[in-house]
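Researcher: I'm preparing a figure for a lab meeting and need a structural model of a single chain. I don't have an experimental structure, so a prediction will have to do for now. The sequence is pasted below. Please return the structure as tokens so I can convert it later.
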Amino acid sequence: MRKIIEPCGFHCIKVNHLGVEFSDQVVLRDINLHIHCGTLNAVIGRNGAGKSTLIRAILGDIAHTGDIEFRDTKDGRMAKLKIGYVPQTVNIEKNTPVSVYDLIASYESSYPVFLPKRRQVYEKVKKALAVFEAQDLIDKQVCNLSGGELQRVLLSMAIMDEPNLLLLDEPVSGIDQNGMELFYKTMDYLKRNYDLAIILISHDLDYVAKYADKVILIDQTVAKQGSAKEVFNSPEFAKVFLAGDKENWIGEEEK
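Model: Understood. Here is the structure written out token by token.
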């Protein structure tokens, strides 16, 4: 993966007129975003506003209108967008014997994990885990990981294929304050040192204000986007978050 000193700005992702309907219900309409690499873009909004649906549409998991472009702005060429993804929750059965190494190695290689470990693959996995201070977890069973440990393992998997875009769907649910601080500092490190853009769904408005380069307020469409100060001080933000019940935006995530 190519390291950089500052956000390069050479790549951009454009979401053009994206819309999603389930049966006759409009969930998202006319979503337009312009995301540059080297930036952390926080998506906020009330429950049911369509935040997770936006992530699923970008991933291609659900049908949508509109299109998504990935462009190298140095020469204007179009390219195939590579996406890394960390979901909100992962269900792992108790007593599952799979280790962190097994999980990541099976994702990275077709080499059977029940055969003796390949040193080259082992070192590659350990190096990826080290980015998130998780290298000591490599031989630990996945079912015995804490929430914060599992989060770091999933982040390691998400960046191993050198994505252009990292999608994070509220990945810090259930993480304590120390874990939250480490997570956002890690996001800051990623955006400064890797050639990728980050889109993060978050309810943690204090952390969003501190770390996000751009805030995107979703209310079926893009109600407001800009710096945290611009969005938080906007009438659109007040309408969504301040005029209604606080439970509208703190609680379980929408579909």
